[in-house]
Amino acid sequence: MVGWGLVVVSIVVIVVYGYILFMTPYWVQLLQLTAMIAVLGVFGILAWIGYTLATTPPPKPIEEIEKEIEEELKKLEQEKSGTPS
């Protein structure tokens, strides 16, 4: 049902957009508005990606991760063998 609703809404928007673009004197404003929305969308997403890259901490070096894994494996082996640390 939602899918058919989207189809109908999309067709209505296409028809209304085409009518305003070709049959009314408002086509210049419509093109300006459409261009502005497109620019805001593209550069808004680009700004969001840049912000995410700038504020995300760098990952741990692989050597540090390997060291942590080795320590955990040693703990598990000690627990399995029953040897106190």
Strand content: under 5%
Number of helices: 3
What string gives the helices and strands in order?
HHH
Q: Strand count, sense and closure of the main sheet?
A: none
Determine the structural class based on helices, strands and strand pairing: mainly alpha
Mean pLDDT across every amino acid position: 91
Summarize the structure.
Keywords: Membrane, Transmembrane, Transmembrane helix. The chain has 85 residues and is mostly helical.
Question: Characteristics of this structure?
Answer:
transmembrane helix, transmembrane, mainly alpha, 85 residues, membrane, Transcriptional regulator
Q: How would you describe this structure to a colleague?
A:
This is Transcriptional regulator. The chain crosses the membrane at residues 6-23, 30-51. Keywords: Membrane, Transmembrane, Transmembrane helix. The protein is mainly alpha-helical and 85 residues long. It has one domain. The chain has 3 helices and no strands. Helix 1 crosses helix 2 (27-55).
Topology, pairings included?
Elements: H1 2-23, H2 27-55, H3 62-81
